[in-house]
Amino acid sequence: MAIVEVSDLRKTYGKKRAVDGISFRIEECEIFGILGPNGAGKTTTVECVEGLRRPDGGSVRVAGYDPVTDRESVTRVLGAQLQESELQPRITVREALELYAACYPAPADWRALADRLGLTDTLRTRFAKLSGGQKQRLSIALALVGRPDVVVLDELTTGLDPRARRDTWQLIQEIRDSGVTVLLVTHFMEEAQRLCDRIALIDKGRITALDTPSGLIGRTAGSTEVSFTPSAPIEARLLSELPSVASVAYKDGRIVVNGTDETVHAVLSLLAGRGISAHHLRVTEATLDDAYLDLTGQDA
Ligand SMILES: Nc1ncnc2c1ncn2[C@@H]1O[C@H](COP(=O)(O)OP(=O)(O)OP(=O)(O)O)[C@@H](O)[C@H]1O
């Protein structure tokens, strides 16, 4: 069942069309990613979902509620990660957790939450003294303290080192496994590829593609490359005629065939049928990076 429904969402700032007819549905317990270049309209979209911005057109529903007119109901079911600057530097982790817990009628046990997020040792530490990773974990704890059904995480791992980023990924998976739907805005392809069940690629206020990570990768031309040195000569024509082959090239004595997963099987069967061995065989899969470039025509 869809817990978030966005339909033909539109938002303009002056003459700038930040969001220009975006529609998507997020199923319960999904990790749904929003990906796109700077200024694409990602934050505006999630701010409309959070009820922080009033759309100019279209509709948004979170668990059936309108985030603008049913603000209070949405606050109960949706948790949003806070930006660093929104906490006072002198507030301690414990004070922040207690303060936020006090805002909800039936909050989660903040001590258990702190424990789950590895914050127990930092309860007396002031916000300004926390590391980037600890601040991020606190922002997740504050987003979860109201026991939300949906949590919005906007560029959560920006500025974290690779280790802290991986720990955060683990945490996001645990949050989903505990029954919370996650809406994730990210610039990191690897993050989106590993975590998201589905991804909406947004560019210039519109969705350019919406699919699973492997579905997006599968749309990339020549998404799989198989290369090898044949033990005996083989005509390029035989390879090009194989199903789903996009291109055949020779590079430094190696044959490089681009296509899909199916191409790999077809090439190996053709070689086996002719008694030719494929030396130094290498198969390379496209990544979400390649798909992003292919679908948006620009770097992440
Ligand atoms: N308050 C505002 N007033 C005027 N223009 C705005 C405002 N907020 C955003 N914009 C513009 O709307 C467009 C979309 O911005 P938005 O922040 O939604 O994009 P984004 O995809 O989240 O970008 P980024 O990846 O840089 O955070 C941009 O051109 C931005 O300059």
UniProtKB/TrEMBL annotation:
Annotated GO MF terms: ATP binding
ATP-binding listed as a keyword: yes
Alphabetized SMART domains for the sequence: AAA (SM00382)
Coiled-coil blocks: none
Membrane topology: Peripheral membrane protein
Main location: membrane
Superkingdom of the organism of origin: Bacteria
Record keywords, A-Z: Antibiotic resistance, ATP-binding, Nucleotide-binding, Transport
Domain ABC transporter per the UniProt entry, residue ranges: 4-229
A Pfam family of this chain: ABC_tran
Localization of this protein: Cell membrane
Record-given protein name: ABC transporter ATP-binding protein
